[in-house]
Design brief:
single chain; alpha+beta; 35% helix; globular
């Protein structure tokens, strides 16, 4: 997994990884990795999460405001 850049300095995201139709997110507060898929959260939202993850800013807020518990499963 790639370490999240955390350009805002206060992100809850620790690291992430993604593929064609999913993104995996590890938060600072847990050892679990949350897997979000096109099926669980929608293609548009997954693509936005990938964009924010690569940018290193805004992913934590986006998940809390728009995604919430729409993960497919935890690893």
């Amino acid at each position: 997994m790639q370490i999240y850049k955390n350009l805002s300095g206060n992100a809850g995201v620790h690291s992430y990884d993604y593929g064609d139709d999913f993104i995996k997110v590890k938060f600072n507060r847990t050892d679990a990795v949350y897997v979000y898929t096109y099926e669980s959260a929608g293609q548009e939202k997954i693509e936005k999460m990938k964009e924010l993850a690569d940018a290193g800013k805004g992913l934590t807020g986006y998940i809390s405001q728009h995604i919430k518990n729409k993960y497919a499963y935890k690893e």
